[in-house]
Amino acid sequence: MLKRKVEDVFNEPGCSTNQGKSEKARKAGCSKPLTPGAAAGGCAFDGAKIALQPIADCIHIVHGPIACEGNGWDNRHAKSTHSQVFRTGVTTDMSDLDVVYGGEKKLYKAIKEAIVRFDPPAVFVYQTCVPAMIGDDIVKVCEVATEKLGKPVIPVNAPGFVGSKNLGNKLGGEALLEYVIGSEEPEISTPYDINILGDYNIAGELWQVEPLLKKLGIRVLGRITGDARYHDVTVAHRAKVSMMVCSQALINVARKLQERYGVAYFEGSFYGITDTSNALRTMSKMLVEQGAPADLIDRAEALIASEEARCHARLAVYKQRLEGKKILLYTGGHKSWSVISALQDIGVKVIGSSVRKSTTEDKERAKELMGDDGMLYDAIPPKEMYRMLKDREADMMLSGGRTQFIALKAKMPWLDMNQERHHAYAGYEGMVALVSEIDKALFNPIWNQVREAAPWDAICAPAKVEN
Amino acid sequence: MAEVIHPRKALSINPLKMSQPLGGAMAFMGLAGCMPLLHGSQGCTAFGLVLLVRHFREAIPFQTTAMNEITTILGGIENLEQACLNIYNRTKCKVIGVCTTGLTETRGEDLKGDVKLIRQRHPELADVEIVYVTTPDFAAALEQGWGKAVTAMVEQIVQPSLAKTDGQVNILAGSHLTPGDIEEIRDMVEAFGLTPIILPDLSGSLDGHVPDAYMGTTYGGTTVEDIRSMGRSEITIAIGQQMRYAAAQLQEKAGVPFQVLDRLTGLGAVDEFVRILQRVSGKAAPQKIRRQRSQLQDAMLDGHFYFGNTPVALAAEPDLLFAMTSWLAEMGANVVTAVSSMESPILETIPAAQVIIGDMDDLERGAAQAQAKLLITHSHGRMAAEHLGVPLFRVGFPMFDRLGAAHRRTVGYRGTRDLIFDVGNLLIEHAHEAQPDDWQLPEGDDHDATAAAH
Lengths: 467, 454
What we know:
Helix content of chain B: 40-55%
Distance between the termini of chain A: 73 Å
Largest interface: A-B, 70 and 65 residues
Strand content of chain B: 5-15%
Helix content of chain A: 40-55%
Strand order of the largest sheet of chain B: 1-13-12-11-14-15
Number of strands of chain A: 13
Structural class of chain A: alpha/beta
Mean pLDDT of chain B: 96
Number of helices of chain B: 18
Distance between the termini of chain B: 31 Å
Oligomer: heterodimer
Structural class of chain B: alpha/beta
Radius of gyration of chain B: 23 Å
Low-confidence stretches of chain B: none
Shape of chain A: globular
Shape of chain B: globular
Radius of gyration of chain A: 24 Å
Largest sheet of chain B: 6 strands, parallel
């Protein structure tokens, strides 16, 4: 059953890359084979949990040995307006006895204990490698638990060995489609109801964008899953338009929402001025197409004009200082091109960007934006990254936490652009924040001091050679 | 002294525990030119990697055999083989430290046989030590994985020797010691004119320094040559009960006598260490050490006011829990709740009525019930501390929301002195200030015990 689901997810008709493939290539799936001893990144379980855990009022039980939850809980900065319950680390902590006798009974008991203790609106149960190998049927356990305990208990079947984090995102989305979306109805419906898919409110990024939507009278009805409560996911089928934020991560959800419930979707980004404006424009236009009053488009244009002007005025201060600075960008997915365009807005040069996890379309966009100034890389070996920074081919690196020390050990400024980051960079506000963080990092006074050799070495050195 | 309790519950809430393979990999990070390798799915490594990066704020060399659906069923020797070759070709490392995971242990990989076969097939790997250890995720915890990995290093690298090197001392360092702790231990041993070989030595690799060039492996730590020569040492001093088995194996293999020190935190415990160093070196304690001891005595005198009768709740891995609770008891504090990640013979000797094998939820509930004034555990205790409104003193791994985790020092006279200051300051900061209503007379008929107690 899981196999069929994985195939189904790989065979995504909404995905342009997939459309361009032969039948055989499509069957082989879109995840690149991993190289033992030279792989990086999370597993499918990791991806599924990233996608679903932001549902803040729910309990998320990880069924597996301690590694899967014990080594990784409470490690992200998804923010919630409503509840902190989702941050609780909850696991069945399987022991060797559970491996021998099977973990289904323990899982059932665990679900029961969680409901008694936290009284959540729903419980999510995540499958992991070990119980999958010994044949624990979490779908059945969840079915029985739902029936007997009177709360939705949702199985998320994405054990780590089936593939990458990205596949896990999609399998998480499948669980929502199968068990959650459409299970409740909103109290009221408005012509201004949208879904936001694939944004997890990292560091509060949705909070940078929602005031814009509010100003236009647009309501975020379905949240998948940034700043969501369970109810906010169940009613997503009643929205008029879905905005798919994280490139292709939840495209299966967007497409199926359209097929099953007629919710139109578009892909957009809130990173950068141009992209934010375009997202607001497209969203308004599509809502009007779905029956919202036509004045929405004009109101959106007016808001865009005033916010862009306000943003540019605030950025002008930095433009002088940052013009011509060279940046090495090492992120994945949609962020590549949207950040490139954002940085170019203030005169910063992107000398190189990775497009590791990007789709062909993403790559095209990035290429077009960078022109002759920069190079696109699939993956840059760490040693080469270190060299580029050490030789000052770039003034700074923007990347994820794992590569930060390549920059720092080269004594070069670095900024966190990844999911674990503490700062929010979305919308017009986020752009100002990003630029101010880049400025802060580049102009910190430590750089000169830390790059200097110890001056007392020179005192003992044999006669100093003058140039 | 303490009764060890195993709560019967199916749900672990806010885990204290981390997995064995992570502990094993961390131990390998204390070897020079090493690449730790988890034999499992890529997520096994990814989660551990993120946690290590957050704690040490360092680049962490850490690889995976990237087991997938098919190899999980058919067996992982090809993945292990490819991983070893790829790692060696790319990094020219000296050691590959292989730890199994829940995934490969559930299938039942023959690790020893696999490594043997890989060695036969690839003579080009002759220069690299491939140390392997079985560490299923579904048993024990980080501390035990560390202990097993160190035992494997001893069994697979140390060379027996009849000749001894005068003044050479082996230190087997437990998982609860930070790079800062290890520097302190080295300093003390060297103060007696002795030459320590410390295994593993995180102070060389993860102490946070800036190397001159990019390295794909660990950039410091115990070298393979040093480990080989551990058989020539006069004595092995094992720090923490978790190191007992490795020390015993070293004795069996190379005839080096050993002594286990349960802890190096607290005046009496450090005295014991100094006594051993005096005996081995034949020298009296140098002036520097005497001065440090005197400073600790003074810190105890200044600090005891704030510790006396203070109810404290702790959660940690066994050896760290033992060190912290014993030191607190010596300062006059009351250990009201003690939670451990796993079983260990040391738990029974902890100065508390009970030790629970449990999670942060057990800590939180115990602390609430006993009205603890202070929590001591790793950074994941922050939610419990927030709920309870009491201060949290962070110890152990992971410490991801504070700077300088690697340099926290709690061993030796100086480490204990600093610990008294740090914890004492926290208690001073959160001391109860007298309020006008603190001393009400009993009202009317309400002469019950609670009212009288005020």
